[in-house]
Design brief:
Aspartate Aminotransferase, domain 2, alpha/beta
Length: 410
């Protein structure tokens, strides 16, 4: 691999930096991308990277042949559907999602991104309960819409979003002693609110790869039911088999009132998100709960439908559970020989590798990039390990070997 970017790559990165607004994590860019295939990215310099990030959209890897074929076929047929018309692909996608729903009868709404879908779920809860207060976990992330961003923290930068006084932020389960503190704080809020809380919004398994105690969500399910609070699970990064079950909440036996899916639903090709919610929340047909021009787009819904079919046909959820255990064991074995690596955390293939004290995760991430691994930092001085569900053991071994070399000389 060449260490100096080519003129073509430098030129594209410079053009990108000139054309686009700069924002954290995506600009300026690191390199110009030329191709994607399976678990691999290839830049304009010919460097190839195992993609452990993929914005958590690449469950099926890149350019999956079944998705490419489905997309080509759909482009020869129905390519758009105004909202006032039904179309077969949208109906079949809703049916496919509902087949996996373990709760009472449910209905679906689609959106073009996870942030919009979160706000649909919030509107359903607010309208159905007639209440205004919302509980979220401090330090969470549910998107960048004005409503969704305010859920992230009580201290959101005021330049980006306003925070309503009806929002409560509690200690998250991944903080020290967080599960117990979280339960206590939620109970206090519910006691003080006098029946004013509409919804509790959270990721059942946070995308930072911290897994809550098994008892947490069942206890909160009981608490929400007792107080008439709608439990909304954000599975935009963790759903669709990533953690070893189709829905991450299935690990805990606590069925929410609504779940939000996104990112990988479009197969790493097209943007689409979904809300699946208890049909008893369908109480306001006179309101616009989530009108989007492309909400039932026959192309995006066709790709999403094929994505679910691949997950089912290839047993990718079970594969994620098996390969997640394999990766965990490989990292733990490596940690015995490399003090710069502490341990693995996560569930299935939604994982992170925690680094030793004194090792800077940002520097390690850059070193990984030089060694052909594209990843991100995670809280707790860790590197993300979130590959496509199609990865195999040999590729996991190769990836961990590269990470081992990278963190030894960050």
């Amino acid at each position: 691999m060449r260490d100096v970017p080519s003129c073509a790559s430098r030129s594209l990165v410079a053009r990108d930096a000139e054309l686009f607004f700069h924002q954290e994590g995506s600009s300026p860019c690191l390199a110009g991308l030329a191709a994607v295939e399976g678990i691999w990215l290839e830049d304009l310099d010919g460097r190839r990277y195992v993609d452990l990030h993929g914005n958590t959209a690449h469950h099926l890897g890149y350019r999956h042949p079944r998705l490419v074929a489905a997309l080509r076929d759909q482009l020869e047929g129905l390519t758009f559907s105004p909202r006032r018309f039904a179309n077969e692909n949208a109906a079949r996608l809703a049916e496919a999602l509902l087949r996996h729903w373990p709760g009472p009868r449910a209905k679906v709404l689609f959106a073009t991104g996870g942030s919009d879908a979160i706000e649909i779920a919030l509107r359903l809860a607010l309208v159905a309960t007639g209440r205004q207060e919302i509980i979220a976990l401090e330090g969470s992330y549910h998107g960048h819409g004005f409503g969704a961003l305010g859920l992230a923290s009580a201290r959101v930068d005021p330049r980006l979003a306003w925070t309503q006084p009806s929002r409560h932020h509690v200690t998250p389960y991944w903080a020290p002693g967080g599960a117990e503190r979280m339960l206590e704080e939620i109970e206090r809020i519910l006691a003080r609110s006098g029946g004013g809380v509409a919804a509790l919004v959270a990721e059942p398994i946070r995308s930072n790869c911290h897994v809550p105690p098994d008892r947490l969500w069942p206890e909160l399910r009981v608490l929400c039911t007792r107080h008439g609070v709608k439990l909304i699970f954000d599975e935009i990064p963790a759903g669709l088999g990533k953690t070893g079950r189709f829905f991450a909440f299935e690990h805990f036996g606590a069925v929410p009132d609504a779940v939000v899916l996104g990112k990988a639903l479009g197969g790493g090709m097209l943007p689409i998100a979904a809300v699946i919610a208890d049909a008893r929340l369908d109480v306001a047909p006179e309101l616009n709960l989530g009108h989007y021009t492309h909400e039932k787009n026959p192309i995006t819904t066709r790709v999403a439908l094929e994505t679910i079919a691949v997950i089912e046909d290839d047993g990718l959820a079970a594969r994620a559970a098996r390969l997640g255990a394999y990766a965990r064991q490989a990292v733990e074995t490596l940690a015995c020989h490399n003090e710069r690596i502490r341990r693995w955390r996560g569930r299935g293939l939604l994982g992170a590798i925690e680094l030793g004290h004194g090792i800077d995760a940002a520097a390690a991430m850059r070193a990984c990039f030089r060694h052909g691994v594209s990843t991100v930092t995670k809280p707790g001085n860790a590197l993300g390990f979130s590959p496509p569900l199609i990865i195999d053991e040999s590729d996991i071994d190769l990836t961990i070997e590269r990470i081992d070399r990278a963190v030894r000389t960050p």
